[in-house]
C-alpha cells in the first residue's frame, strides 16, 4: 500500500494532487505545528497577469497545531470569491469551474484550518477523479519526536503490512532512509515536472493553485496533467 502524507494546504497546487493520484492512502497532517508563511492558509492565483496571494486571515500563537488554528472571521469567503471572479471571469472554463469553487468556499466548515482545507481538498480530489482514501492524522493518535519518524509511524499505522511512503523531493532534506528502514517502511520519491499550459499572462507562472489550471483548461484537462 502506497501512503502519501502532507499538511492540509489551502486550494493546493498541481503537484499536491499529482502525489495524491499515485497513493492508495493520503494522510492530511493536521496535528502538527502551524508554520508561518506556509501554504496552509494561503495560495497564489493569477491576478491581472501576476501571481497574487489568496490568504485566509488567522490569529495564531507560537506552537499552535494546524487543527486548532481558526480564521479570524467569515469575511474571507466573499473576499476570495470576489477576487477569483475578477481574476478568472474571462477564462475559457470559468463557468464550469466557478460552480464548484463558489460551492466549495461557501460550504467549507467554519472550524479549524484542518477541517476547512480538508473538505476543500476532498472536493477537488473527487472532481479530479483521484482514488486515494483521504484521512486525517489527528484521527490516528500517532506520536513521535522526529519529523521523519512521525511519517514512518503514520505509514505503518495506515498500512501494517509492507507500507510504502511516497514523498516529494523536498522531504529528502530531513528524511533519513534508516528511519524508514527500521520502521519497515519503503521510502520512495515522486517526481513532478510542472507542465506548461496557456495562462492569461506574458509569462508562465508555475506553482499556482490548482484552480488556475482548472479555470484555464477545465477539470478534464487538469486531471490529465495531474494523473499523467
Task: Report mean pLDDT, rounded to a whole number.
Answer: 95
Strand fraction equals 15-25%
Largest sheet: 5 strands, parallel
Structural class: alpha/beta
Instruction: State the helix count.
Output: 8
Q: Please provide the count of β strands.
A: 9
Q: Would you mind describing this structure in some detail?
A:
The protein has 8 helices and 9 strands. It has helices at 14-20, 76-88, 94-107, 113-128, 147-158, 177-182, 210-217, 219-227, and strands at residues 2-6, 25-28, 42-47, 50-55, 58-59, 70-71, 133-136, 164-168, 186-190. The strands form 3 sheets. A 5-stranded parallel β-sheet has the order 7-2-1-8-9. Helix 2 packs antiparallel against helix 3 and helix 7 packs across helix 8 (219-227). 37% of the residues are buried.
Reconstruct the topology from this structure.
Elements: E1 2-6, H1 14-20, E2 25-28, E3 42-47, E4 50-55, E5 58-59, E6 70-71, H2 76-88, H3 94-107, H4 113-128, E7 133-136, H5 147-158, E8 164-168, H6 177-182, E9 186-190, H7 210-217, H8 219-227
Parallel strand pairs: 1-2, 1-8, 2-7, 8-9
Antiparallel strand pairs: 3-4, 5-6
Task: Provide a brief overview of the structure.
The chain is of the alpha/beta class and 228 residues long. The chain has eight helices and nine strands. It is 37% helix and 17% strand.
Amino acid at each position: 500500500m502506497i501512503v502519501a502524507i502532507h499538511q492540509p494546504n489551502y486550494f493546493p497546487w498541481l503537484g499536491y494532487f499529482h502525489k495524491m493520484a499515485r497513493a492508495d492512502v493520503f494522510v492530511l497532517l493536521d496535528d502538527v505545528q502551524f508554520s508561518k508563511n506556509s501554504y496552509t492558509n494561503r495560495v497564489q492565483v493569477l491576478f491581472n497577469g501576476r501571481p497574487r496571494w489568496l490568504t485566509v486571515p488567522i490569529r495564531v500563537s507560537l506552537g499552535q497545531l494546524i487543527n486548532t488554528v481558526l480564521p479570524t472571521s467569515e469575511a474571507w469567503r466573499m473576499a476570495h470569491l470576489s477576487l477569483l471572479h475578477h481574476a478568472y471571469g474571462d477564462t475559457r472554463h470559468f463557468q464550469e469551474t466557478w460552480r464548484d469553487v463558489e460551492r466549495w468556499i461557501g460550504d467549507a466548515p467554519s472550524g479549524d484550518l484542518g477541517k476547512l482545507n480538508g473538505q476543500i481538498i476532498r472536493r477537488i480530489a473527487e472532481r479530479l477523479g483521484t482514488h486515494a482514501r483521504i484521512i486525517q492524522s489527528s484521527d490516528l493518535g500517532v506520536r513521535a519526536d522526529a519529523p521523519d519518524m512521525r511519517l514512518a509511524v503514520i505509514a505503518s499505522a495506515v498500512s501494517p503490512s509492507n507500507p510504502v511512503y511516497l514523498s516529494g523531493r523536498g522531504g529528502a532534506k530531513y528524511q533519513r532512509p534508516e528511519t524508514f528502514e527500521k520502521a519497515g517502511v519503503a521510502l520512495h520519491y515522486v517526481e513532478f515536472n510542472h507542465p506548461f499550459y496557456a495562462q492569461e499572462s506574458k509569462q508562465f507562472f508555475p506553482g499556482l493553485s490548482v484552480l488556475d489550471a482548472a479555470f484555464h483548461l477545465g477539470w478534464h484537462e487538469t486531471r490529465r496533467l495531474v494523473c499523467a
